[in-house]
From TrEMBL, chains A, B:
It comes from Morus notabilis. Its main location: membrane. It is a multi-pass membrane protein. One of its GO terms (cellular component) is plasma membrane. Residues 731-749 have a biased composition (Basic and acidic residues). This is Putative membrane protein.
Length: 758, 758
């Protein structure tokens, strides 16, 4: 691949982006698409719906970018909520002022808010150094015949072009130092400010029911008592002074529902068939060798039928059967709840397992019935499944990599020879097709990983997203980076990883060789995906089908989407990883990445302003993932640099790199010591202060009242309401509530309409 | 090495053992050695000192073995305390009865108590299968000329002798299954019973001050307040209802003492010199350009001198300076203490760090002054140092391995040729010398690792021993096993580990090739070290020097030793590891190992009965190390077996081994989930029950009284007592108390004599 191919690729991408963005700027002005592009505004009841039909509506305009940029803080505060303000300020202003804003913000976009500006800053530094220091050194690294610029291979811009033992390698080493130091300094301040924000979020936000609540699982089964009574007894005994009340969790998984339905059906059928068999059985007069015996069998059978029916009718027993071994327990103070959640409760660690409860909207009800004893094996099983999935995924990736080596393709499919000889087609095939195919395959990953996270048994939606986020992150880094580097270039198998010592050197060779792939990946996956994100292709299509084919005209959105952290954070982190890894090897990639991050900043800003609704908060739990990945990227960059300096025979540079690796790891350890506990647990000091404040202001009673209706597992359909009105049967309210599909405005009415199950 | 060489080696070792043991049985009867061999009895005031001079004293007898075996439980209970009983019962009787005994036992030897019988059981099974199934299969594995038995090479007993693709390999696979299953079943019951014992130990033992106490570190420095006041304010504010009182920790490290001495000296000298300078300065009449200024300087200097002196004299300020940022905080209930220890206290995780306090005798006072912020870096530094030490240690090991290859030695030192040609010498050199040299080098390891653990900053003696135990364990497994396997045989460098995939196959080749080394290692290091252990060579030598050269005749022991867990557990685990690893490769090793474990059982039983004193208890914290190492050994055995089956081309056996590996790992994970939390934290349920019991019986007041004198950092020498009598200066009592050097009888008087620092 040479410069002209790169430019072709860049051109196509820029064109695609421009077209999509123009299209977006037109589409967003159409009143029919308002549900797609202004879901958030509709949800908060702030959208203008009266657009006159005019010519302007069909002219593309950059007004949304301008608006995203121009809107003042006060306007943003009024229109888009505090989150947008926080998002903005994290870029422009100093950190301290953010904390002030946090005090009364809904505190959404906690992580992406800092991730993007952080990426922009660090890659601005990297791009400047890369383009003005490393790139010239690489380009003039060897005495050779300089070709016309557009025909220059991309290789001459990589470190492969630097002579062995060149004295100029110190520039690479220096770049390494500057990059690492600035990345670490920025990272430290980010971590510190996010930790502060998290604390401010906890203390300043309105009273959160989850702070008073503990989720208890693995309640031991006892023959005499219901689960509910066991919970009451246990907490009255050991947490008498602080225990308030509790609320059982009922079985509600889909499988569970199917099973209980099947069970009921079976019992009804069995009862009916036994009845049918019984009557003639008792009245039969045929030859009967052992009459008494057959009578006994029948009568005992009758008894069981009676018992079963009694079971079936007795609502208490049915209620008991549906309760599962989990409950939300409410405490009088936040401190008592956090103590109950963190201290080991029982001498058998597999019983009375306590956890901090997730926020009410964050609870993933379908997973709460899972027996605690299954969780560890589920975790291992999903881990294995995820790894297997990663390995199966190698097949498309290998195929994609085949495309970059056209000769092989021509050998395999001889009929393609004619087409591939045309210059434009071959440039397209090498420069653009591989990454498009890869992206299409990658689209299957998030749903799969989300499924794994569900099976794993997360109790909260944010936990599920976090788990999926980690899995997708490992997956993308493995499949996009490692597999491409190693299958495409030197070695075709996993054999590379069997030789630990040579990995740095092999990476140092393989990464620059794959420069063209990474460049096109950034262009296609990065830029184009942003354009797709802003276009909201899938909702747009749905909307179109609904309007044109189904002719539904309702304006209310089916489901206001929540921000897809689990796909966006891994993507941003992957690009960060690519950026760091390639920073000294292929500095040409850095400007493209910087453009990507800036574009991403505008796009996500717009999306958060207009499209996504924040339904639950993770409270910044994503940040440690970001931090760890960044540190990993830095160390990986340094290890590759070690390989490079080894290959280029520059022992001095190697010698200087080793302390850098150690310092980076020490820095990481320090951050882990200093900040990570805040993200794992709540501090006693903070909670006690909050409790005191609320007690003094007399708010506690009000909070206790709220607690009663905070966690509601079932919602009522009108049909259920009728049923529950006519009989006191609780089974009707089985439709599990899914906050992902509920508008914020709807919530309150549902709270009042829900059956309280206490 | 052939069978005759092995027999030579075994013969030498048996002879050495017999001589040493006979010597022991004579020496132990000499009244002059009573302090060496009956330290424990003297300490508990139960030794008989009047032995008449008779002939019997100089005749070796196996009486101690008989006695160790014969003594009834009741006698053991009366003589040796409950620990010996527990030790015995863990072998003979069922598990449940142990728990009953635990109820009123001092609960010492918690781990070795179960480790040894466990090892005996599992290796009895292994030895039987190994000798009667695997050994014949190996021996008759290949058609070849059978030599005279004593001249058979050891190799024909290893798996190397089995033909490729042999059908008999299923016996090895079956052995693997039987061994793994029996090991896991035994391990599970051990873990369960030990967990029960730990709980019983906590609940049934007399009130333990450490349960009421929390160690607070990283108390923030404030300009207005002393540390003591800060602690009081903080805990009065946040733990008002349960806070009792606290006790500051004072600086007492050796370096600290030297530094403060130097500081004092400096201040005295400075004061003196300033005084000397001052007087003439004020009275000088020479040419003085700026008189006022110089006067100012002098006067301000005088003021600082005055201030310094005031500081020096003001005892409050001196007291404040000596306090360090750590304190023991006492709570009203056990539950409150455990809550304070487990919950994150401050929003800054580097401040107000709480930990469960160690037992009073277990506190390692010299490490408490270490600033908390240093700990993480100390841990990393010691880890690095330990790894460096492990690598440096390669040098002697490589040399030792050179000895097993005599040709090389002859080439290097040609003058040895004559001697080495003699058969006996060569057998001695190959069979015995290498492991003796290795053992001698290994003796330097425990003190070094102990030093690392001290530098690491453990707050308790048991924690220090546990940390040293882990380090020594990794060290021995690495240096005895891996380095010997790989340096001695195929590959001379660490290069092996650069190729991950081939490791199983290489191990499968290398381990049987080193069979002779492992056999002699078990003989020399195992058997002989037990004989040395029972002989107590070093104390015996000290005693001899004291009596013969220094002519001291006092009978009281300098220091009754505590059981050296940190050296004995790694040794036992290493032999277990060797046993598992070699079980199917070199089954010849198993009988020797079994003999070792049985002998160890008697020896340690005798030592615990007579020699060692238990001063502090870890409460079974060593067991998870044992468990994990055993699981590691099992998995390692299976991986090597995979390599073997791969080399011998038996895909069926390989296929059957893989599920075994997975099941073993799942079993480990289950045990970790089920039992490990009990070893990390105390359960709320248990502690609250204990608190209630004590409250109801009215014992609490008594316990609070005990708490006041429980933790005492300084002891008084008579000199100090005089000083503290004449002035109220607390500095005198600087000699830090070391429970390792204190007799149990002494303790009480010291408690009363100590200065209470509250």
């Amino acid at each position: 691949m040479n410069i002209s191919a790169l430019l072709t690729s860049a051109g196509i991408n820029i064109a695609v982006c421009l077209i999509l963005i123009s299209l977006y700027s037109i589409l967003r002005k159409q009143p029919s698409n308002v549900t797609v592009y202004f879901g958030r505004r509709i949800a908060s009841g702030r959208s203008r719906r009266t657009d006159p039909f005019c010519f302007e509506r069909f002219v593309p305009s950059p007004s949304w970018i301008v608006r995203a940029w121009v809107t003042t803080e006060e306007d943003l505060l009024a229109i888009g909520g505090m989150d947008a303000v926080v998002f903005l300020r994290s870029l422009i202003c100093s950190r301290i002022s953010i904390c002030w804003f946090c005090d009364f913000s809904p505190f959404f976009c906690f992580v992406s808010l800092c991730l993007l500006p952080y990426s922009i800053r660090i890659f601005a530094i990297a791009a400047i150094i890369g383009c003005f220091v490393v790139l010239p050194v690489n380009y003039y690294g060897q005495k050779r015949q300089y070709q016309e610029f557009p025909l220059e291979s991309l290789e001459v811009f990589t470190i492969l072009n630097v002579q062995e033992g060149s004295k100029w390698l110190w520039t690479h080493c220096l770049t390494l130092y500057i990059l690492t130091c600035s990345a670490c300094v920025l990272l430290y301040f980010e971590y510190r400010s996010i930790a502060k924000m998290r604390l401010a979020h906890i203390t300043e936000s309105p009273p959160n029911p989850s702070h008073f609540t503990v989720l208890v699982r693995a309640i031991p089964w006892s023959a005499e008592d219901t689960y509910s009574n066991s919970v009451k007894k246990f907490f009255m005994k050991y947490h008498e002074s602080s225990y308030l009340f509790h609320q059982m969790v009922h079985r509600a998984g889909t499988i569970q529902k199917l099973m209980s339905d099947a069970e009921k059906m079976y019992m009804v059928l069995k009862a009916a068939s036994v009845e049918r068999n019984c009557t003639p059985g008792l009245m039969q007069c045929g030859p009967c060798t052992d009459h008494t015996n057959s009578f006994k069998v029948l009568s005992s059978e009758l008894e069981t039928v009676k018992e079963e029916r009694a079971d079936f009718v007795d609502m208490d027993l049915v209620g008991r059967k549906k309760e599962c071994a989990a409950a939300f327990v409410f405490f009088k103070t936040r401190y008592a709840a956090v103590v109950a959640a963190q201290v080991l409760q029982s001498a058998n660690p597999m019983l009375w397992v306590t956890d901090s409860a997730p926020e009410p909207h964050d609870v993933y009800w379908s997973n709460l019935w899972i027996p605690y004893g299954q969780l560890w094996i589920r975790k291992i099983a999903t881990l294995m499944a995820a790894i297997a999935f990663m390995l199966v995924f190698l097949i498309p990736v290998t195929f994609v990599q085949g495309l970059t080596q056209l000769e092989q393709l021509q050998q395999t499919f001889p009929f393609l020879k004619g087409i591939l000889k045309k210059k434009f087609v071959s440039q397209l095939a090498t420069g653009y097709l591989p990454s498009v195919i890869l992206i299409l395959f990658l689209y299957t990953v998030p749903p799969t990983m989300m499924l794994f996270s569900v099976v794993e048994g997360s109790i909260s939606r944010s936990g599920r997203k976090k788990s999926a986020c980690c899995k997708i992150l490992y997956f993308t880094i493995w499949n996009v980076f490692f597999v491409n580097v190693f299958t495409g270039s030197v070695i075709r198998q996993l054999r590379v990883f069997s030789s630990v010592k040579d990995i740095p050197a092999q990476l140092a060779n393989a990464v620059p060789a794959q420069a063209s792939f990474f460049l096109t990946y950034v262009l296609s996956s990065g830029w184009a995906s942003l354009a797709c994100e802003v276009m909201q292709l899938f909702p747009l299509l749905c909307n179109l089908i609904k309007r044109v084919i189904l002719r539904i005209k309702s304006d209310s959105p089916d489901a206001a989407l929540s921000f897809p952290y689990h796909t966006e954070i891994p993507r941003l982190l992957l690009f960060g990883f690519l950026g760091f890894t390639c920073s000294i090897l292929v500095p040409l990639i850095l400007p493209f990445l910087l453009v990507y991050f800036v574009l991403a900043y505008f796009v996500y800003r717009n999306q958060i302003l207009n499209v996504y609704v924040s339904k639950y908060e993770s409270g910044g739990l994503f940040w440690p993932i970001v931090h760890n990945t960044t540190i990993f990227s830095l160390v990986f960059m340094q290890i590759i640099a070690l390989g490079v300096f080894g290959l280029r025979r520059s022992p001095v540079s190697s010698g200087f790199t080793i302390p850098l690796v150690i310092c980076t790891l020490l820095f990481n350890e320090y951050c882990r010591q200093r900040f990570h506990p805040i993200f794992k647990n709540h501090a006693a000091e903070v909670l006690i202060d909050m409790d005191r404040r609320d007690e003094e202001s007399g708010k506690m009673e009000e909070i206790y009242q709220q607690l009663h209706s905070a966690y509601y597992q079932f919602t009522l359909t009108p049909h259920d309401l009728f049923k529950s009105g006519s009989s006191s049967n609780h089974e009707g309210g089985d439709s599990v509530r899914d906050p992902e599909n509920v508008k914020p405005g709807e919530e309150h009415s549902q709270v009042n309409g829900s059956i309280k199950i206490v």
